[in-house]
Structures are given as structure tokens and as C-alpha cells.
Amino acid sequence: MAKDAFQVVIRGLVTHEFDLEYSDFTSGKLGPHLEVTPIVPAFTGKATPISSLLEIIQPSVDYTHAVFHASDDFQAVLPKNELYSALLLFQQEDKPLKKGFPVRLLVPDGHSDCLNVKSVVKIEFIKTTAQQPAEFGFKNTVSPEEL
Fold it and tell me: Where are the transmembrane segments (predicted)?
């Protein structure tokens, strides 16, 4: 996938895996468009509620968390209950995002100010037995080629 290509992949414990494009967001196929400023005053633009996306992808009843993977290896892990207020910002000034492309995760009711993840390229639904709250950070992985 080209670095400037708009694609967000949905994987994991879902009935329907998707490779989402910009038109999927702008067409309203993924749910309503919300102006984010009244919800998250530090941001402007249009977003899709993750709750609408959940209806389409139909995650397994067994999933406990969603992992939001950014293009720079940053990731946020959110428990199921925090997803219902979360948004995916996809547009500012009627254009794709310049900062945070392709989409930015916003969690207005999250317990951490850092739950605003830019450049989300993959959303993975997982099951874990840990009762972990939301967490975030860079993945600490090194491939054998990098040693």
C-alpha cells in the first residue's frame, strides 16, 4: 500500500473484515457524519462514530478490546466500553486529513488525554482475559533483519 493511499483495514474477531477507503467514509456508508468541535473542542472536521462502524463489521460477542494501529507503530488498546463514544476523524475542510491521515481516533470520554491517535491504518478486534483499561504506546518490536 502506498504511503499516501487512504486505507483503514478492519481485522480480528469480526464477522466482516473490511479494507476501508476514503469514499466509504464520505459516502455515509459507515454511519453519520458528525462535526467534532462540539464533542472534542480541540478538533475540527467530520468524523464517523465507531458505534456505527460496529453495526457494520459485527464484532464477535467474545471481543473485549480493539487495537488501533497507527502507521508509525504507535497503538492504542481500548476496552469495549470505551468504543461507544469514540470517533474516527476522517475529514477537515472537506478534504482528507493532512495531519493524522488517513483517520484519527478520538476518545472524548476516555480516561487518558492521549487517546487521540493519529494515522490509524488498522483496527483489530481482540479477546483478552486481562481486565486492562485503555493503554497506548509504541510497539517495541525488532525484526531479525534489524539486529
Answer: none
Residue 21 predicted with pLDDT over 50: yes
Asked if 125 and 59 touch (Cβ cutoff 8 Å), the reply is yes
**Is residue 89's pLDDT more than 90?**
yes
Looking at the DSSP bridge assignments, the partners of residue 67 are 77, 124
Angstrom CA distances, 22 to 39, 57, 61, stand at 22, 17, 28
Pick the closest to residue 67 from 82, 48, 45 (CA basis). Answer: 82
Grid coordinates belonging to 54: 460496529
CA 42 to chain centre: 18
| CATH (residue range 8-146) | 3.90.420.10
Q: How many CA atoms lie within 13 A of 14 on its CB side?
A: 20
If you count them, how many residues does the chain have? 147
pTM: predicted TM-score of the whole model, two decimal places: 0.85
